Prior knowledge:
The protein is of the alpha+beta class.
Amino acid sequence: MQIRPATPEDAPEMLALIRGLAEYEREPHAVETTEADLLRDGFGPSPFFHAFVAIDENQTVGLALYFYNWSTWRGCPGIHLEDLFVQPAFRGRGIGKALLAAVAAVAVENGCARLQWDVLEWNQPAIDFYHSVGAKFLDQWRTMRVTDEALPNLAASSERLP
């Protein structure tokens, strides 16, 4: 098994893993991302995300996709792990932990104060795994999101400000 930074050549496999994650999370039709999106936003001069892939038995079987954030309270960067996924047939081999450890190493190398991610409340296997590596729930925090028509509507409201 090998964990390595993703390259543009990995885009097709990355997209397949993203679709696999969407199926696992019971939203198989939610993925709108294309290979072109991955190439544009992950491998250009100013990437919006970074990723590691896991290679086992000569195939790409896992993905950890992350991006940087910044803590106003801690005064330093952090990392948000957007996706961590291992194909079901390859689970239980330490691949997920190796991917997570690779992202944690990037966080440490870059002076990040934290590594954070979201997990679905029904995904008990993932929750148990995350607890096993020392992760803790932020019980008082809830994720908020503005999407679809609400996003441009909110943006347009700035035009009406004095």
